[in-house]
Amino acid sequence: MAVLSEGERVLATTLAKLTYCNPFVPERIQYEREALGEEFVESGAVWNASASLEWERANIPRVQQRVEKLVETVWGRLSAGQAATQQELDLYQDNVLYLLYHRTREISNEIIRDGEAKTGKRVTAYRQFEGDYWRYLSIPGVKIEPRYSPHHMFASFFQVRRAFHHIFQNIIGRSMPAARLRAAVWQSIFTNDMERYERVLWDRMADFMTLIVGPSGTGKELVARAIALSRYIPFDPKALAFTEDFKGLFSALNLSALSPTLIESELFGHRRGAFTGALEDRTGWLEACRGLGTVFLDEVGEIDGAIQVKLLRVLQTRTFQRLGDTASRRFEGKIIAATNRDLAKEMQAGRIRADFYYRLCSDMIVTPSLREILQDSPQELRNLIMFIAANLTEPRGETRADGRYEKEAEALTEEVEKWIGKHLGREYPWPGNFRELEQCMRNVLIRGEYWPAQMPGKGARQGLAEAVMNGSLTAEELLRRYVTLVQAQTRNYEETARRLGLDRRTVKAKVDPGMLEEMGRG
């Protein structure tokens, strides 16, 4: 007799898929729907910090209740001596892992809230976890071969929770381009096969360099930080402590801001006297990086051929030398690089070495532009504005329980939205991406206005044309903006009045001074 009924087998199979599923892909929603049936609460398919989490509280606890009941039922049958096939035991072990992960969620969340992996600090909750682990997977008379040690799984669950936290917090938005980016970052951390990752790759991901490409201002460093702070950190079961503090495992270096000599010195270090100004020995970023650490090289497309050769050696052999030194040193960490250049074209033009390029792009992530996101989901602009407004107005060093700062964020959101709609238009391309949007909000917050530096004179004109095409203006707004446009061309109230068939006083009353100044710069 099988230990699982047909219905239980279907549920256990679905739960096993959930155990190893990328949480940022739509398939996760489908698996939850299959596991819950009529109890499933319909919701969006993307996790993000700007969306409501009401549905998480609805579906996740329901799934957890199902897996709790199934695991306890199967454990009881196995303990009573009921036979099981190897496939059933494999499904049971997958379900146990899913159950134990959710039991450790609050432990992991507490450590993340503290901002450290509690290096050297005792995590006494591990004892309960280890007891549960062996209770479920070491049943007398049942040949279950645990795939992993309990302390490895405890560390793995903490890694999964950190990865979810950092992706969730750093990559916001409800649009599909943002959702795809979150899923891609998860793959860079765990690959597309989490079971294989757990079997053989959990301590090998530093061997794979990650290249992040995309326009300036699209959050490439945030993506790098999410990956770096989500690397596997071992747990020492004797000391009851993690071996590293995750918050200190990320170092960023902007290569475009340094000369070639300084880049080499910063990366590889130097000996005293290696060049003019080298007054003492210096440890470079690669040498200072610990085995679980990550060095982020921003604007890697800017470096010259000689440094490419040296970096290639690091990627191939993990060895390097300080400037002015002959001793080889070893790099143990991970490298993440980023660029806004098209490196394939740079390679074809001879500015990027082919061997260096192919080492860089073994794992590549593309960050979408703000324009792409808004083309996919125009309503996303308000969500992003609200998110930034909350960060700009949230108090520091105190909490306000009366909700006043939330009201300030809402007021700033309305103010910025109104300014953009009135002066830039909903179709404004945001060439500076998220960085420009944040700058726009800071300008409106401080000055009450924002005029794009990259499009002198065009913003208001283009905004007017696009607003007319979209039918988004009232008759009064259309008149005011059109009068201002003609006045910017004539610079003469009488001439503007003549062209428009209005009297001079009406023209003066309708002209928008700020828009007139911006148009006049074109």
Reconstruct the topology from this structure:
Blueprint: H1 6-19, H2 26-36, H3 54-79, H4 86-103, H5 105-114, H6 125-137, H7 150-170, H8 176-190, H9 194-201, E1 210-213, H10 220-228, E2 235-236, E3 241-242, E4 250-254, H11 260-268, H12 285-288, E5 294-298, H13 305-317, E6 319-321, E7 328-330, E8 334-339, H14 343-348, H15 354-360, E9 363-366, H16 370-376, H17 380-393, H18 404-424, H19 433-447, H20 459-470, H21 475-490, H22 493-500, H23 504-510, H24 513-520
Parallel strand pairs: 1-8, 1-9, 4-5, 5-8
Antiparallel strand pairs: 2-3, 6-7
Helix pairs in contact: 1-2, 1-4, 3-4, 4-6, 5-7, 7-8, 7-10, 17-18, 17-19, 18-19, 18-20, 21-22, 21-24, 22-23
Residue share in β-strands: 5-15%
Indicate the low-confidence ranges by residue numbers: 51-55
Give the termini distance in whole angstroms. 82 Å
Structural Rg: 29 Å
Largest sheet: 5 strands, parallel
Derived from helix and strand composition plus strand pairing, the structural class reads: alpha/beta
As a percent range, the share of helical residues equals: 55-70%
